[in-house]
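Entry 14. Structure prediction run on the chain below.
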Amino acid sequence: MKDFFCIDMIIVALVCTVMSGVHAVDIRDRDIKDICQSIPLNVQVQGSSFLVNGVPFQIRSVGYAPTPPGATTQHDVPYGDYYLKEYAGFWERDLPLIREMGANSVRLWTWYSVKPHKQFLDALVEDEERPLRVLLPFLISPDLYEDLSNSQTVREILIDFDNFLERYSKHPAVLGYLIGNELDAVYGNQMPAVFALLNSMTNLAKAKGVTQPMTSPLSAANFVNIVNKYYTASDLDFWSIQVYEVETLETIIAEYDKVAKGA
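Output returned:
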């Protein structure tokens, strides 16, 4: 387990966003298409730092969800996945602005992996002087996978994750992977199964030679208790958290440091 702590703190909203849940779109298409083949980033977590192709990389990221005013991610097509080519007008407008503000990466929430996204990924790195990297989400929710203690469900997730990595792990825009979102909140009574699954997914990626790290953003409410319980048992490359208040963040960092130093 890497002794690293990543803060997933939403600081900037470039456009209006409405995050109201994950719509039950079927992402379980085993027919691999839209495969991205290039030279992937070699991303390492060393202590509390990222190295990208051997060079220190300080993440300056924007939470990017370009949802139009009045739309929701739960009820309106494309259910938050505005990274498809038919919505290129959004990100062709926004990505240059994100570069101008000094950011070097974006964090996404919704990404239906069977949809074609190569054009968006290419757009992130088309400015060779100021490329943007992406923390790419793999969706897990009870709408898609209800019982994580069920061996058939776990098998389906691993197949889907394997296909996800086949599609995207070789694209140079990809900085790392976010498995689920606040899984402790949506699978609260299944946490042993959650961490067993996260370990299986992380180890699958390593066995495939994937060169970017894995994490799972957790909620601020449960983070300290979860770290206390699973710090030494987790194979994730780094810990991450969604936090919205600086005061909460300061307290959590202090508690995290105690656990890390005692491990």
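The two ends are 10 Å apart (CA to CA).
Filed with the rest of this week's runs.
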